[in-house]
């Protein structure tokens, strides 16, 4: 076998692996769609329960309900971002390779990573705020641990962005 035949065989093998990897993402997308439907049902059940029990008439409970709804919206946005990114990865054509394509993919990945991490930090902030408002349901150690975890997320985000901006 010549070296060009070996490289062509290796390239075909990698092409098959790439296609199989992309097709393996389909069940993940279906699972995310089902999870979003269940999450949507939960969202409306929470609103219905709040109206039925008149919890919205209590200021503190209304604030907690709104925080819970915001939390659900941000989690849903996170799922949509991941599903959209997964779908876009799936539909990439194998023939669309090249230096410009790789650079565009890296920029898109950085933007997506920034959005996902920002959303996770927002969700963490909402959880910390909810726990502080519902202090009677959590111990001081649990609130401190949640706050510490949130600070670690913030520090990681800052360090990641500082190093990333130095690379550009």
Automatic annotation (TrEMBL):
Keywords: Cell membrane, Membrane, Transmembrane, Transmembrane helix. The chain crosses the membrane at residues 28-51, 63-83, 116-133, 139-163. Its main location: membrane. The keyword Cell membrane applies. The keyword Glycosyltransferase does not apply. It is a multi-pass membrane protein. InterPro entries: UPF0114, UPF0114_bac. Belongs to the UPF0114 family. PANTHER family: UPF0114 PROTEIN YQHA. This is Uncharacterized protein.
